């Protein structure tokens, strides 16, 4: 059985964003590579701990560390990675180290906020967006701001790249949440429906609960409350489609992608810039 | 119900060691206070995660975060503290930040090593000492080295304080493990016998399994294997006493205290120095 932190390799989006933001803002340096590794390590620490929190059994198509070696090892391995992040920050520009620290803290804040909202049927879209802006987009935003800063970009360009990262991260998480509802396990490497199992309300459900009639709402709440099988899941998807909630969520993801691309207008046109545009389109295009 | 990370306040030994080491080596600075907070935060992150790992229900006489708010919140709150540690390291002397990072990593390494040895009846004393030198003494050692370094001490003095911290930390953990066997919950704030429940072999048991006759050994292994009640625990303590294993462990703790005090010989005599000597004696005297 193959088991390692990154056995399935993953998409390496966060380190990619550090490097691409560097290229788009004047060129990569040695420190870009160091910062790229830091952001991927923070992400892997998050994944290790998320899998403990969510009792995840598989990720990227392979068994999780917690499922094979237990929660203890997964928690401690995540902590070890964070210790290594502290070490790798030594010698980096103070402003960059500050961004890295804030990215780590905002990620935790977003996750804690999500936990506090679990099972809240009246969660609204703006609160959901703020949650994912923390738990997912904080690392995207930090990665892009770091890449720009290390390339010597001015404050306005750093802010533009941060806005690009934040929008891309939000689009990424909306898409990830959609994949959890309508994706196929073969493609995502994760079991589908796990958000439902953990009473996490994501955008399609938030939209549905706001727009559906009372009878449909009650029906869907019943399905959400009583962990159910494939038949109920299909019924849930039909209900969501009847209110165009899936379509609405796809559109919102695309709007954030456009917001990300618009933020890049402040940056001089370059190959790095073009690849950032493609990256933003890719994150929301994963589900076709 | 009172529940907070440090509701029971705790002994504040690690931040105390940063400050006292500073006083002993030339005087405290603003950065000593910052570093003291960093070491206490790292320790609290460890406690939060330890309680998830060990399914701890109470600590310092109050319910643990995981028992009240769930494992997720406890894991994430620990991660948040580590993020704040990264932030607080910004601007500190590079060598100090490096010590802080290494302390965090060595703590995790020690804990991971302990997990890998769980249920190993032939764990020997040197391996046990190496485990606790990581999981507990790394923060003591780092706190003392940091205090000395921030006071402008030379390399040999920094090393002397590090040795003091390492020995004190080892004595502290041996005593803590003894309290888990022979302590009273009212005094320690933690349930007794939790190491036994988690198949952690500590010094009294290591000594017993090395020195006892085959029949006694088999009897104790049976008690350890089948999680048992008060009667079996009393029988276990009698067996350990019959081989003087508790007495042996107390003696070893005191030897490490003497090692700590001896390391201070390299440091000029001062009030700070005297308090460090008292601190080392205190950690092994908690059980009397």
Short key terms for the protein model shown above:
disordered N terminus, two-stranded antiparallel sheet, 288 residues, 2 strands, Farnesyl Diphosphate Synthase, homodimer, mainly alpha
Summarize the structure.
Chain A is mostly helical. Chain A has 15 helices and two strands.
Question: Could you walk me through the main structural features you see in this protein, from its secondary elements to its overall organization?
Answer:
Two copies of one chain form a homodimer. The first copy, chain A, has 288 residues and is mostly helical. The first copy, chain A, has a single domain, classed as Farnesyl Diphosphate Synthase, CATH 1.10.600.10. Chain A is 74% helix and 1% strand. The first copy, chain A, has 15 helices and two strands. Chain A has a two-stranded antiparallel sheet with strand order 1-2. In chain A, a hairpin with a 2-residue loop joins strand 1 and strand 2. In chain A, helix 5 crosses helix 6 and helix 5 packs antiparallel against helix 7. Chain A is globular. Chain A starts with 12 loop residues before the first helix and ends with a helix. The interface between A and B is large, with 38 and 38 residues.
